[in-house]
Design goal:
This protein is mostly helical and 395 residues long. Among the domains are: 62 residues, Arc Repressor Mutant, subunit A (Orthogonal Bundle); 120 residues, Serine Threonine Protein Phosphatase 5, Tetratricopeptide repeat. The chain contains 22 helices and no strands.
Length: 395
């Protein structure tokens, strides 16, 4: 059984999403649960396998298949992430040595080198910046900007016309209050990118230009914030700047391996590159970390795209329809389900779905649909073929 088949079996029915921990094998779930509470302790594969209830070789295989690393590799990555969080919240009595030892690192020189490789700076630099921020005292304008920005996030994650406009309206004030705060610029970049890619406005070229500009400004202001990096990466994806977006996303995951939204974007990125197996694996991780809205529907739609790329059109339609049902404003994704239905031979159903989509998006054409996403040419060609079978206008 291939990796994609194994994961598809584990995720047999999108309707059972509340039990989405099944996206990972039970032995892997047990291993991860135990490791999160024992990160600073020495890790022995034999002991971990006993806790997981499988043989060591099976556990190693599941780590590589579903998480793309070994058990010890995962532990090292989590230890670094925890050390960084402690550095960012360091008090006046904390030291780099103390944080390293409490996070499970015994060799301080290697810790510093691994930390710098992962986060682009020495641990002492992170700690010093955190202390400077603490000493500067409370900034009420920044505090209000943070409140307003986080309040706008659900609108941005909806990826729907009305919510996108609402997010942009909400994000104006925090950018005025705190011009050096990167996150509102990154969210705005993502929203302007949505407007351009999904035809939420009549000025796609101007919107795309504004999106890219804000993405660069956000990155310059907050190169060490994982959520800012992830959102700015998404904006670059919508501008078809995939290589640059991919590098930014990898940095985000190095900074925060627990960020569910970064794993969603990682899964979509793999789908864009044509790696369906990796996309399903990464989106499964996202669903395991956050199996509820406002992010679940994006994972479902991404799963559908991955199955579509692999030619599993019946699965693609089911996943996408589940995602759109959870977030009806994301009707833009229904074009994948329409094409998938057509390519399975269900022409009547595809035409019915196509008419339904055109009522929500009356100006949609096949030519525009093929330009919306940076999927592989083969993917977009099959998408166009399916939409044509469903009766959508070519241009």
């Amino acid at each position: 059984m291939s990796a994609s088949d194994a994961i598809s079996e584990a995720l047999r029915d999108p309707a059972i999403a509340p039990g989405i921990s099944s996206a990972l094998p039970a032995d892997l779930v047990r291993a991860l649960g135990w490791l999160r509470g024992h990160l600073s302790e020495p890790i022995q594969l034999e002991r971990l396998a006993q806790i997981s209830g499988v043989r060591p070789r099976t556990l190693e295989t599941h780590f590589k298949m579903f998480l793309g690393t070994t058990p010890l590799g995962w532990v090292r990555r989590m230890r670094l992430a925890r050390a960084r969080q402690e550095m960012l919240h360091a008090g006046p009595e904390d030291t780099v040595t103390g944080v390293a030892l409490s996070s499970g690192f015994g060799q301080l020189g290697r810790f510093a080198a691994d930390y710098r490789k992962a986060f682009g700076e020495l641990p002492s630099t992170t700690m010093q910046r955190a202390r400077c921020s603490l000493q500067s005292g409370a900034d009420m304008d920044l505090d209000e900007a943070i409140r307003l920005t986080l309040g706008a996030l659900p609108f941005a994650f909806a990826v729907a016309p009305k919510q996108c406009s609402a997010a942009l309206e909400e994000l104006g004030r925090p950018q005025e209050l705190a011009p050096t705060y990167g996150l509102p610029k990154a969210i705005a970049a993502w929203c302007w990118g949505q407007r351009a890619a999904h035809r939420f406005s009549a000025t796609p070229d101007l919107d795309r230009e504004r999106s890219c500009q804000l993405a660069e400004e956000a990155y310059d202001l907050a190169p060490h914030d994982a959520l800012t990096l992830t959102l700015s990466s998404g904006a670059l994806v919508l501008a078809h700047r995939l290589e640059e977006a991919d590098r930014r996303l990898e940095r985000a995951l190095a900074l925060d391996p627990w960020l569910a939204y970064a794993w969603i974007r990682r899964g979509w990125m793999s789908a864009y590159f044509g790696d369906s197996d990796a996309a399903i694996r990464e989106l499964s991780i996202a669903l395991h970390l956050m199996p509820f809205e406002p992010l679940r529907h994006l994972s479902f739609i991404g799963m559908g795209c991955a199955h579509f790329a692999a030619g599993r059109y019946d699965r693609a339609a089911l996943w996408v329809q589940s995602g759109v049902k959870a977030s009806p404003g994301s009707f833009w994704a229904q074009r994948i389900a329409v094409a998938a239905a057509a390519l399975t031979g269900e022409r009547g159903e595809a035409r019915r779905m196509g008419r339904q989509l055109m009522r929500k998006d009356p100006d949609l054409t096949i030519a525009e649909a093929r330009q919306a996403w940076p999927f592989t040419p083969a993917f977009m060609s099959r998408l166009g073929d399916g939409l044509e079978i469903a009766g959508l206008p070519r241009a």
